[in-house]
Amino acid sequence: KEWMPHEYVPWSLGRDYADLGGEPWDPEQSRLSPIARTALEVNLLTEDNLPSYHREIGRTFGRDGAWGTWVHRWTAEEGRHAYCIRDYLLVTRGVDPVELERARMQVMQTGYDTQEAPLLRVLAYVSFQELATRISHRNTGRHAGDPIAERLLTRVSTDENLHMVFYRNLVKAALDVAPGPAMRAITDEVISFNMPGIVIPGFARKAAQIAKAGIYDQRIHHDEVILPLLRHWAVFDLEGLDAEGEKARIELAEFLSQLDRQASRFEERRAQARARADASG
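Above: the chain sequence. Below: its structure as tokens.
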């Protein structure tokens, strides 16, 4: 679905930085809360690593026929996510541009590697990842406190949702063609899942801050990412599994129960921490 990134950036707010005779960046210039700045930085740096993602999906899918059409179109769409979010942040002075650029250089020099994961595992991973990214962008927009940022991130999350639907449908087809291996791939990716931004400097600390703010946490991951996809694929009603597929399904059910318990404990600790903070002032 065509959209024009330049229509989502408030260009009139832009002004020169210090080296061109303007003002250096200062946190007071940002219209974003500290947690919104952190979330937007993580979202942008994740999108920035696109050359690595393009290499990996090109290796997995190939570049012939429909696969090649998809790989290049997906890459083009993801590319504009990065530059329009960056344009917004630089124009509005939302984040420290020096630190952002240093982090971008580090992330892209680290790259992203699927360890030559096979096709079915990549399809399962990107189904979960695209949905997770959609929700992360959407919730970041809601926390931004700026209607322009929310409008932009809502538009980006719409793209991510369309990408997820494409991959989700391929996994559904894979379950029809090869239910056992597809179930194994789904289980392996649910259990080992990490966001592609894991290579971002300080990612664990930033992810914890994002979780505490309720932008993206274990409960969201369990309830809004994993379960909707598993329901769509009807994995617990699937028939015709081989022994390995049945074993994978059992492992999946056990992991989901564990993740649900972990999410509940996190929610309880977060509520207690907020209650203490409210009581102290």
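The longest helix spans residues 243-279.
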